[in-house]
Amino acid sequence: MEAVIFDLDGLLADTEIISLKVYQELLRDFGIPFTEETYSRDYSGHREEENVQRFLDTYDLPWNFDQTLDKVYELEAQILAKGVNLKKGAKNLLTYLQKEGIPIALATSSVESRARMILDSNGILSLFDHLVFAKDVKRSKPYPDIFLKACSDLNVLPENCLVLEDNEAGIEAAYRAGIPVICIPDLKIPAQSFLNKTEQVFQDLDAVRDYLESKKEVF
Fold it and tell me: Which residue stretches, if any, does this entry annotate as coiled coil (predicted)?
């Protein structure tokens, strides 16, 4: 293993629940339920623009695309301003990899300013060697583009990298890129058909650190 590529939402940062709350809030006044299952199945791991279009295609709302996207960003900003927690073991794993001299990249479907704010506010932005955002590739997960871009930026072959992901779209993207992937589920445990495409499944990032330490001689 020559490099590790991290997802952001639901993997490093506990933000998937924030996105769920945003969409629930948008539908609250219309009396329309929006469940965790719906979010996990149809929205998790995708670009905000794609999610907003899917949202408008699904629900009869009195807003156009730009108005809805603005409302999503406004609501999310209000929640993010209160602070975002990192997932268990996130900082420990990042500092471990840095100490071991293993390059680290972020590959996220998030908007750049939002992602940088989350990383910087938690004191981990400087631990990354490369950052790849939604704007840097034409196709989002489950297409492999964002992970292949990260490998290229790191100058490491895909098969020599490791991806850490929490959801089905990310697992599929890594699989299509030919990169070994470890899953740390968040809101939803991916279907078995996706878990079959992973190297390992762990409960948290501390367990990933322990696993990598145990495999150090192999890598």
Answer: none
Q: Is 7 a catalytic site residue?
A: yes
Amino acid at 31: G
Rounded distance between C-alpha atoms, residue 187 and residue 195, angstroms: 15
pLDDT-derived band at 24 (thresholds 50, 70, 90) equals very high
Active site residue 210: no
pLDDT of residue 218: 61
How long is the chain? 219
Catalytic residue among 9, 145, 153, 166: 9
Where does the pLDDT of residue 91 fall: very low under 50, low under 70, confident under 90, or very high at 90 and above?
very high
Average pLDDT score over residue span 164-172: 95
Residue 219 has pLDDT above 70, yes or no: no
Q: Which domains does the chain have, with CATH numbers?
A: 3-14+85-217 (3.40.50.1000), 15-81 (1.10.150)
pLDDT (mean) for 100-123: 95
Q: Which residue out of 7, 145, 166, 186 is catalytically annotated?
A: 7
**For residue 62, how many other CB atoms are within 10 A of its CB?**
7
